[in-house]
Specification:
Layout: H1 2-10, H2 14-27, H3 32-49, H4 63-72, H5 79-88, H6 98-102, H7 110-120, H8 133-164, H9 173-200, H10 203-206, H11 221-233, H12 235-246
Helix pairs in contact: 1-2, 4-5, 5-8, 5-12, 8-9, 8-11, 8-12
Length: 251
């Protein structure tokens, strides 16, 4: 597809170029709703493939190539999704290891064995070694900003929720005990979200309204609903700010 895009760009054949950009944007959409749709589709796809002998990762879009194409052919709208996906991956999840890891000839190389196990569970990779110094700096800056944003969302949700608790103004000892338990449960819920972020680096998934959750049993319904609504309500803000977090101003 890229050779056609190159020619369409060179000779200004707009309808062909626009059609190819539309196809590329389906993998790296500029809209959060389409991102969510893709994530749901990928979950279904991976659920039917994970555990086999093939490498699921090779059949899925790779972010470095998307970034390269975006910059080379001036398609900035796909950068947000590509950089966000890249931010979810550990630098050790480098695609250059895929062939050796999946060949079954690691010869006791622990790193390759771990990489093979990672791929067998549907792990995603990227060409980290091909990123430029500037792109690595953008990635580091974006990851830092995303982490700060999510921590602030959880902190604000916890503080606001404590004020909305149905036992915020206890009338007796029983309600004072329930108030204390609710505050502790809200703190636990916030910390569990932060811990999940530490494992997945994927706040957009954690902040989904349909994201599976196991709230503490002592958390009142009012607090749970308010906390989840505040966290979910910040998803669009996060998506909107990603462009600034990764600083695409130089492109």
């Amino acid at each position: 597809m890229e050779p056609i895009l190159r020619l369409a760009t060179k000779y200004d054949i707009k309808w062909i170029r626009d059609d190819i950009i539309r196809i590329i944007s389906e993998d790296w959409p500029p809209e959060l709703e389409k991102w969510d749709f893709n994530e749901d589709e990928l979950d279904v796809f991976k659920s039917h493939r994970v555990g086999g002998s093939d490498n699921v990762d090779l059949d899925l879009p790779e972010p470095y190539e998307a970034i390269r194409i975006a910059l080379q052919y001036e398609i900035p709208d796909i950068l947000t999704a590509a950089f966000y996906h890249l931010s979810r991956l550990a630098p050790l999840a480098d695609r250059r290891l895929n062939n050796d890891a999946m060949s079954g000839t690691s010869n006791g190389d622990t790193a390759l064995d771990l990489h093979a196990e990672y791929l067998s569970t549907g792990g995603r990779t990227a060409w980290f070694g091909l990123l430029s110094k500037n792109q690595l700096l953008q990635l580091a800056r974006g990851k830092h900003e995303i982490e700060n944003f999510f921590h602030n969302v959880c902190d604000d949700a916890r503080a606001s929720t404590s004020k909305r608790c149905q036992f915020a103004t206890p009338r007796n000892q029983e309600e004072r005990v329930k108030r204390k338990h609710c505050l502790e449960a809200t703190e636990h819920l916030s910390n569990s979200r932060l811990a999940e972020f530490g494992r997945t680096r994927d706040p957009l998934k954690i902040m989904r309204i349909d994201h599976p959750t196991s709230p503490p049993s002592q958390l009142c319904g009012t607090c749970l609903e308010h906390f989840q609504r505040l966290v979910y309500g910040s998803r669009q803000d996060l998506w909107y700010h990603l462009e600034n977090f990764f600083d695409f101003s130089g492109h």
